[in-house]
Design brief:
The complex is a heterodimer of chains A (307) and B (453).
Chain A: H1 17-34, E1 48-53, H2 59-70, E2 74-79, H3 82-87, H4 91-100, E3 105-110, H5 115-120, E4 126-132, H6 138-152, E5 159-163, H7 170-181, E6 185-189, E7 205-207, H8 210-216, E8 219-222, H9 238-244, H10 249-253, E9 260-262, H11 275-278, H12 285-305
Helix pairs in contact in A: 1-12, 2-12, 6-7, 6-12
Chain B: H1 7-11, E1 28-36, E2 47-53, E3 56-61, E4 72-76, E5 81-84, E6 86-91, H2 104-113, E7 116-121, H3 132-141, E8 148-153, H4 167-172, E9 177-179, H5 188-197, E10 204-207, E11 220-221, H6 224-229, E12 233-234, H7 236-253, E13 256-259, H8 265-276, E14 281-286, H9 288-291, H10 313-324, E15 330-332, H11 340-343, H12 360-367, H13 374-382, H14 384-388, E16 404-414, E17 433-443, E18 446-449
Parallel strand pairs in B: 1-4, 1-5, 6-7, 7-8, 8-9, 9-10, 10-13, 11-12, 13-14, 14-15
Antiparallel strand pairs in B: 1-2, 2-3, 5-16, 16-17, 17-18
Helix pairs in contact in B: 5-7, 7-8, 8-10
Chain lengths: 307, 453
């Protein structure tokens, strides 16, 4: 199979394991491309991509924009705070306006779960989800798994732990779906108030003890504490959180094993992860960023090929 | 327009006939070979002809007489069943204040389409129904209609759950029960005093159990599906915690409570136990919660974003069993109209609710085919709601006022957008195949027939 089974990348839920492997193979090629002196290829010439960001984002937006430009696509950017959109124009109207300008692909970030799905049912352009509320963030999960593969090879049977605010995290959910499709075991760890009650029904282990989880895992994917997404208090203070759920060098050194450290960024240094861990040799946080561009190029390329 | 009695009428089912301007006032109506489903009728289970003249049943039996062949409109529909007119408790209308969603007339039309001749409607209009004047407005505006409207008064001013309303006065002017409708009563003390106060006229308090703080931010039933969709869940206990409180308070005050629109297996057990203990409680379940489950939401269809949320198979099984055992007294339409701008949105921003008047019977009949006998199901639409509101159950006998619902319990059909008579179109049933169809309703000397245009 040399093409994706879907016309949109809304969630890992909708992708097959074959899709994921195809994206990885393609991303490997693009990773080689972006390390050349001339980083640009003409694959998406004459294709117009709209980056619609209804929620703040720096790194994801830049990563997508870079990926689009390295593929020679024409790029338009739209950012709006969700509140101003909510007051006036509906999402559908906004997007239809942009599509009237003949856009072929839409990369969208939106605070409402399901928004890209809703959109994909109404417009002709290919839709790529750059994060929809607390639902999915498929490109992040793919770049995370791609980065893990670089470290560990085949992920079948590997043990991946996700730490932090699982309740408000689209990264966690997409990671879970992606890693399971690749045959890995997944555990989540964090304060019980930040772990959805029924997450175990997705086939995920649940653990509240950080040390025990670290002893179990090969990879620790540490999530940002999303204070901006917590509408009520789920834990008492950042101080207590960092002491009991944060990951520091001392804790890692006390284990007699090496663990790959990942973080989707942006990091709250000293909260969920200390600087000496984030900057340590076991951390692949910056490789994740580099791989992000390659993986997004692969997705854009594969979707464009279906047009 | 109206063809007078002729052989032509006998050749085609009534719903295929060209229909007059509706609602239509027939001078004479002859219903042929209808099976009566009515526990208190001498003709229960029998196939009879019924002759109606000037809104009254003039003759009923194997052979009827007295009609004028030139004037009578004949309804002859293979497999037709007939029961006393159905009544729904708890439909949202929106008149006054939200007429763009539904006004009283459109609600009546949607109701007639669904087989209802009576609607007890929620007080959540703007202003809310919290004094005599709103009650009178509703009564006056609807007095010419086929459908009888029974206002439910608000328990608290503006349905805010704080200041108790003049319930005694409203009761004197025609409310049938009291509720804050879609605003569940959160405050324990307020609920207790409300239950106590209505005892003076043996009133009924209706509360949908839903504890706001427990369901905080919830968008759908909490379970594996909500987790995988990244949506905050409304756990079963958000309903059960409040229901338990309401049952304690109903027992303590010895007052009458209708736990409306329950949706969980736990709630069914609690009602069962409460009834055994002799607590004066009755309960309803929305028809849509019997046929859809949480997994149906996987594509973020906002028409399935309803309240109470669609639960899991286990809950649905318990609800059906509860109905079969008579633990749950009746099936509600949970009619909740919203216009396009309020529903065709990102899931997070869409309002909770779906219209249900047109589809409640067909949905329930489809869902409960294995659990309930024909007469048991009809009781949940025709008899129990009226008994709970202490309204007379219309009789099917000579000399009685004709207040009837005509339906075909075995007819298969697909609900389409053109079947919607509500002003709003937020129905999850569009395109759904269902068994059991309403043919028409008769009340107040008017006849409504569901024609298939």
């Amino acid at each position: 199979m040399s093409e994706l089974s879907t016309n949109h990348v809304i969630g890992i839920k909708d992708l097959t394991a074959e899709d994921i492997h195809l994206i990885f193979e393609t991303a490997e090629n693009f990773k080689e491309v972006i390390n050349r002196p001339i980083k640009k290829v003409p694959s998406l010439r004459d294709i117009t991509v709209a980056n619609l960001f209804f929620e703040n984002s720096t790194r994801t937006r830049i990563s997508f924009e870079l990926a689009e430009k390295r593929l020679s696509a024409d790029v338009v950017n739209f950012s709006a705070s969700s509140s101003s959109v909510k007051k006036g124009e509906t999402l559908l109207d906004t997007v239809n306006n942009i599509l009237s300008m003949k856009v072929d692909m839409v990369v969208m970030r939106h605070p409402a779960p399901g928004a890209p799905k809703y959109l994909s049912q109404l417009i002709d352009a290919n839709v790529i989800n750059a994060g929809d509320g607390t639902h999915e963030h498929p490109t992040q999960a793919l770049l995370d798994a791609f980065s893990m593969r670089e470290q560990l090879g085949d992920l079948t049977g590997k043990k991946i732990a996700i730490f932090g605010d699982i309740l408000h995290s689209r990264v966690a959910l997409s990671n879970i779906f992606c890693l399971q499709k690749l045959g890995a075991y997944v555990k989540v760890c964090g304060p019980p108030t930040l772990i959805p009650k029924y997450i175990h029904r997705l086939g995920v282990g649940v653990e509240y003890d950080v040390r025990k989880t670290l002893e179990w895992c090969d990879v620790a994917n540490i999530l940002r504490i999303q204070l901006e997404r917590q509408d009520i208090k789920y834990f008492p203070s950042l101080r207590e959180y960092s002491q009991y759920f944060g990951i520091n060098k001392k804790l890692l050194d006390s284990l007699d094993k090496e663990i790959v450290i990942m973080h989707p960024g942006p990091i709250n240094r000293g909260v969920e992860i200390t600087s000496d861990v984030a900057d340590s040799e076991h951390s692949i946080i910056l490789q994740q960023v580099e791989n992000g561009v390659a993986v997004r190029m692969a997705i854009l390329f594969l979707l464009a090929a279906k047009r | 327009m109206l063809t007078k009695n002729s052989s032509f009428l006998f050749d085609k089912p009534a719903h295929l006939l060209p229909l007059p301007e509706i609602p239509f006032l027939p001078m004479q109506l002859l219903i042929k070979k209808a099976t009566v489903i009515h526990p208190y009728s001498a003709f229960d289970g029998e196939q009879v002809d019924i002759f109606i003249d000037n809104g009254t049943i003039k003759s009923i039996g194997k052979r009827v007489s007295g009609f004028d062949n030139d004037r009578v409109q004949v309804i002859d529909y293979e497999g037709l069943c007939i029961s006393s007119g159905w009544l729904d408790i708890g439909a949202q209308v929106g008149d006054p204040g939200f007429e763009y969603r539904e006004d009283l007339e459109s609600a009546a039309t949607a109701g007639m389409t669904g087989g209802y001749t009576g609607l007890a409607i929620q007080p959540n209009s703007n202003p809310t129904v919290h004094s005599k004047s709103e009650v009178l407005y509703l009564k006056k505006t609807t007095q010419e209609l086929l459908v009888d409207f029974y206002p439910i008064g608000a328990v608290s001013e503006n349905c805010e759950g704080k200041e108790i309303t003049e319930m005694y006065d409203m009761n004197a002017f025609g409310t049938v029960a009291f509720s804050d409708g879609k605003k569940s009563i959160q405050d324990d003390g307020f609920m207790m005093r409300s239950l106590q106060y209505v005892k003076v006229f043996d009133g009924l308090i209706i509360n949908h159990p839903h504890k706001k703080e427990v369901a905080f931010g919830g968008q759908m039933h909490e379970g594996m599906t909500s987790t995988s969709m990244g949506l905050k869940g409304i756990p079963n206990i958000a309903e059960e915690l409040m229901l338990q409180r309401d049952l304690y308070l109903a027992e303590y005050t010895n007052s009458r409570l209708l736990a409306s629109n329950i949706s969980t297996a736990g709630a069914v057990d609690m009602i069962r136990n409460a009834k055994r203990r002799g607590i004066k409680v009755t309960a309803s379940v929305p028809a849509m919660n019997l046929i859809f489950e949480d997994t149906d939401l996987i594509n973020f269809d906002t028409n399935l974003k309803v309240w109470p949320p669609l639960r899991e198979e286990l809950d649905i099984r318990a609800l059906k069993k509860g109905l079969a055992e008579g633990i749950i007294d009746f099936i509600s339409s949970n009619h909740n109209p919203f216009n396009k701008e309020e529903k065709e949105l990102e899931f997070l921003y869409a309002k909770f609710g779906a219209i249900g008047l047109e589809t409640a019977y067909s949905a329930a009949n489809t869902a409960l085919m294995d659990e309930l006998k024909l007469n048991e199901l009809v009781e949940k639409f025709a008899i129990r709601p009226r008994e709970i509101l202490k309204l007379d159950v219309p009789k099917i006998e000579k000399g009685a006022k004709a207040n009837l619902t005509l339906f075909h319990p075995k007819e298969e059909w697909v609900f389409s957008e053109s079947d919607i008579k509500s002003k709003s179109r937020n129905s999850p049933f569009i395109g759904k195949k269902m068994v059991g169809k309403v043919i028409g309703v008769i009340n107040n000397n008017q006849f409504w027939s569901n024609s298939s245009e």
